[in-house]
Specification:
This protein is rod-shaped. It has 2 helices and no strands. By secondary structure, it is mainly alpha-helical.
């Protein structure tokens, strides 16, 4: 967690002006969205299983 935060903080020091940078952040957003979706599904399954 700490390493990832450090990398993000370092990245945010620079403006996103290149296609590579834009693609990089779009990829990060997609990964975060996927993780949120997976965690959401897991939580739903857990709740359904318990109830």
């Amino acid at each position: 967690m700490h390493s990832a935060c450090g990398v993000l903080e370092e990245d945010f020091r620079f403006p996103i002006l290149t296609e590579w940078g834009t693609a990089k952040y779009q990829d990060l957003r997609v990964r975060i969205a996927v993780v949120d979706a997976v965690e959401g599904k897991d939580i739903s399954k857990d709740n359904l299983g318990e109830s």
